[in-house]
Design goal:
single chain, seven-stranded mixed beta sheet, about 210 residues
Length: about 210
């Protein structure tokens, strides 16, 4: 996908702060420090649009990124960071759950999991939550560059088996360092908003 524009437009904590347009949205989820910001920056060809941090637990809001003025990435707080207080974690959990279960514009959740390690208990819990609410999910097995290519399939199999992955959910091997898997990630996301993109193309043709 050709990225013409990408901007963070709002950081929200409750529904009345969400963008009002009815545009497709993709939520980006994963444990703290798994590489969500690096994933966003690589896909959007930006170095620092999403701020990467050496301090896990930094993201505390739902950050809405408007892409090409026709869909959103929504970066949600990372989970599983022990130093965040139980009260804060509970508040983040409610904020994330409210968004995921009530947002009509949400097309799919992009769940980012470190290929080097089996999915954590928090990863499994998040995936089961998405399945319970019938929310489409795209698994991104990131940090592929950190593992020899010959072991990729073995590690992806561990991800599938640990999550008990639904056959309808796609798993994409990805590296923010090399860009491996970038085109496939875009292709999968585009498949979830094909109708909207076709309508936009028709509108552009009519205006021309």
């Amino acid at each position: 996908m050709k990225i013409k524009s990408a901007d963070i437009v709002i950081s929200a904590v409750k529904p009345d702060q969400y963008p009002s347009e009815f545009l497709p949205e993709f939520a980006l989820a994963g444990r703290s420090n798994v590489g969500k910001s690096s994933f966003i920056n690589k896909l959007l060809n930006r170095k620092n649009l999403a701020r990467t941090s050496s301090k896990p637990g930094k993201t505390q809001t739902l950050n809405f990124y408007l892409i090409n003025e026709n869909f959103y990435f929504v970066d949600v707080p990372g989970y599983g960071y022990a130093r965040v207080s139980k009260t804060e974690r509970a508040a983040w959990g409610r904020m994330i759950e409210t968004y995921l279960t009530s947002r009509e514009q949400l097309k799919a959740v992009v769940l980012i999991i470190d290929l080097r390690h089996p999915p954590t208990a928090d990863d499994v819990m998040m995936y089961q939550f998405l399945k319970h609410y019938d929310i489409p999910c795209i698994i991104i097995n990131t940090k592929a560059d950190k593992i020899p290519k010959a072991k990729w399939q073995k590690h992806m199999k561990i991800t599938r088996e640990t999550l008990e992955l639904d056959p309808n959910d796609t798993i994409v091997l990805f590296s923010a360092e090399t860009g491996y898997g970038k085109d496939q990630a875009w292709s999968v996301m585009q498949s979830y908003m094909r109708e909207e993109l076709e309508e936009l193309e028709e509108q552009v043709e009519e205006e021309e």
